TetR/AcrR family transcriptional regulator (Pseudonocardia petroleophila), 178 residues
Amino acid sequence: MTTAPRPRDSAATRAALLAAARALFAERGYDGTTVRGVADRAGVNQALLFRYFGNKEALFAEAVSEQALAPLSEGPPETLLERMLTTMFDDAAGSAMFFAVLSSGGRAGEAVRAELGAAYRSAFAALAETDDPVDADLRATLLLSWLLGLGQARPEIGTVDGVVVAHVLRGARALLRG
């Protein structure tokens, strides 16, 4: 008796590769993640990874960008700061992905950081209470830089709880309000 071949499901394979990549990039960073490791975790041949994504850089860009950009579209603009802080500082919400992006070297990390930075800077500038677009962009850039610095200093800050998030939220709002 022969075993029937497994039915092909390209959407499921692609989703499995993205899920495996997100987990490994979050755990090991870009440099510590291999295409073989992603394929093994997804339970597929690594040739499929190259078929769907072309290379590790493209896989990284898609895997992390989608998750890191999610707070921008998951609610109204006035709650963006709360959503971003929750995502950045709440382990259950995927903070590891932000830190994977921050610590990723090479072209892949630079490209993703540039994409995310532009998207968040634009969203923060839209929240700035000023009629001067140059000032709005400056406030957004300062806020983004501060938040990324806080993310990198998280080990020194310790447990990020509601008190820490409330302080950061007040500071962020003050910067945007002027």
